[in-house]
């Protein structure tokens, strides 16, 4: 069996991916599938079938002729891994190319790769930051914190309690005192509270 290794750099870690051959079920695998994940070839194939099972009428087995197939957020958000997560929509939005949660296979694999136990902590922190940055301005501002806290507590805190907690977080974590959290501020907070991720 002839195999080609392609190395690449993803999330600070070099990975190698075996290119599929025609004697494997992966022969149909599109050439644009992410070359770098934290999964084995077998795990990638399993995730492909998970993706396909969400909408077999949309995702053909021979994926090479349909690289632009996207599954709608409604299907992605209903997966057991996401359906009870208060951030399911934000997670899907952050990992989707269109920003609306509609996912290609690439997006789907990226999401599962980053959320896996094998992904490095700094990569997880980067994506957690993006998920909490609701207005997509590359900062976590007070309104982002309020939305995050409301989702985490399922709206069980009063408005005053939410404001108080958000002000306290900004006071303690905002290193440059600009009233919002940068990625650096967020990573510093994560390093101080390792159980956060």
TrEMBL record:
One of its GO terms (molecular function) is magnesium ion binding. GO terms for biological process: calcium ion homeostasis. Keywords: Calcium, Magnesium, Metal-binding, Repeat. Residues 120-155, 161-196 form the EF-hand domain. Pfam families: EF-hand_7. SUPFAM superfamilies: EF-hand. The keyword Nucleus does not apply. This is EF-hand domain-containing protein.
